[in-house]
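FW: tagging you since you asked about this chain on Friday. Here's the raw sequence from the shared folder, copied in full. Didn't touch anything.
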Amino acid sequence: MAKSLALDPYLVDVLLPDLVGHDKRPAAYLLFLWLWANTRGTGRKSAFFSYQMLSDRTGLSKRAVQRSVAWLEARELLGVTRTSKTSVPQYTVMAPWLR
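HL: got it, structure written out here
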């Protein structure tokens, strides 16, 4: 049986046209949506994922994932914590509209 995923309407009504239409960053939206589903969608605010895992799971190239992470971090939609340059990052999915 398939699980359902509850999405905040903001993700579709505001963030989709903003990231895809205005910013011209559909890969960033796709990555954010995947990260949302695998963190907040499962009751967690953050999780550890390697670039390779993100690439494999989303179908994006590793470089597209890297650029999208940087863009989402700059937009303050994603927090990224690294304990060292070679460690697997911890991603915290931000939802500033939920204040």
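FW: Strands lie at 46-48, 78-81, 90-93.
HL: agreed, and The chain has one domain: 10-98.
FW: great, closing this out.
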